[in-house]
User: Fold these one by one.
Assistant:
Number 1:
Amino acid sequence: MRYRHILVVVLAVATTVVMGACARRQSAPITTPQPAPPFTEPAAVPQAPPAPRGAQAVVDNQLAAGPALSEDELAGRTLEDLNRDSPLRPAYFPLDSFELNDEARTIVAANAEVLKQNPRWAITIEGHCDERGTAEYNLALGERRAAAAMAYLVSLGIAPTRLKTASYGDEYPFDRAHSEDAWSRNRRAHFVISGK
């Protein structure tokens, strides 16, 4: 009788572990009430971006990208074209954090200026994580990262009606390597132009 009780407990634990593993693979991204547009991994990000090098370097890179496009120039470009050469840069986060540090605030502020120059753009802010952590943890952390970037944009004068958030956890890394450098590139809020 005692062995039967132990066998039932072992089977229950094994079933829970297997169901948990299956549920992890089948969990859907956490999103805000408005659904995000589909993610286009290769087209939106043709290659890994450089590692964060400091706030001034980010501002210099965005200024070097050239002047804002006119309404006529924008009208002829598809969303895919705009996102391929997007002036919106990702904001990076430290490990296990969703707080914007000084460098991330500088990037988001520069993105806010681009959005002010292009008032018809709507964007989706995607929250991403590195590969460490469970799927559930990474989805929740990605959502918090996207929400933090959105809140900062709103505080800088961007209308919340132009913004949506989505979390992809560790599903779409910029860099697929398994190193600290790769992980630092993957912990980000990624800004995607989703309407114009």
Note: The two ends are 69 Å apart (CA to CA).
Number 2:
Amino acid sequence: MRFTRRKVLLGLVALVVIGWAWSGLGSNGEAPIESQAGTVTLVIDFGAESGRAPIIRKVESFSGTGWELFEAAGVEVAGTAEFPAGFVCRVEGFPSVANQDCLDTPKFNEGSWAYFVTNSKLATGWLLSGAGAASHRPECGAFEGWLWVAPGESSGQKLPSVAAKPDNCEG
């Protein structure tokens, strides 16, 4: 059976939607309790090929979503026309408008941003997020990472270059 890029992209979108729905419910099927405010670290890795240094911002007293963390950290983010506050297309002007118009979700040959998370309760290191940033609520001490995945590369091939060192924020 041959997989086309379109089928793979549709499959990935379906996984994100399922992850979003799953993360929105507690273990008993009820909505989760709001996360408590605390320090969350945002990491933006533009990739070695970009020539840009990673951005690392710690945000104190944060209790919003991963998407809201961009604003709280003073980092410019643009979504797509289809998903203006849900699918990251451009961070701090990267990639350029000439390389990505942000009218729709980027195609495999255009490159895209991959979303990674970690906290003190997860395995060490970065994990590719199964939920979108607009529905994910990082806990105190968490790290939220964005990595530019160059055209033709898979998000499973790389991790953000900045080491994540989550804290549990307890005593």
Note: Residues 5-23 form the longest helix (19 residues).
Number 3:
Amino acid sequence: MRALRAAAAVAVVALLALLVWDVAHSSGGKVAREVDKGEMVPAPAFRLPRVAGGGHISLASLRGKVVVLNFWASDCIPCKQEQGELNKAAAKWASRGVVFLGIDEVELRSFAQRYLQHYGVKYQSVADGDGAIAGKFGVTGTPETFFIDRKGRVVPPHVVGSTAASQNSGSLDDGIKRALSA
């Protein structure tokens, strides 16, 4: 009986992964590809529930501000490794009108809430429960970070992996500066 349940769980996870991949590589997902080519593209609209507290946040409500959009998950090791840097950058850039927004991907809200509390995350995070927004952006894993200018356009760079990793050194500040000057 356990083997049957395990097989069913694996099948569900595989189908979900296939769905996210399909959205990212067919009708959606053009954002990451275009930004990686050096182009600015309109950010896909979304309205998602807050991970902690009530209510929703829409990207439209942040228009006029630079937004650092970070896709993460509570079980993601590189997400944990970069969280300190994100917290410091969010505090550093707040006075310049830069807003950090985390998007928690496809997990139980209780796990996400514990992550936010454990890592002292002060900026807002929303829940992308079905992965649809990640698919629209072309996210292929966590963490991934996008930069949105005041006009609602995603500007390069698009950071795949931890912003704290040596190969991405300086990318967080570079992306914010580029979005501020766009």
Note: The helical segments are 2-25, 30-36, 77-93, 109-118, 132-137, 171-181.
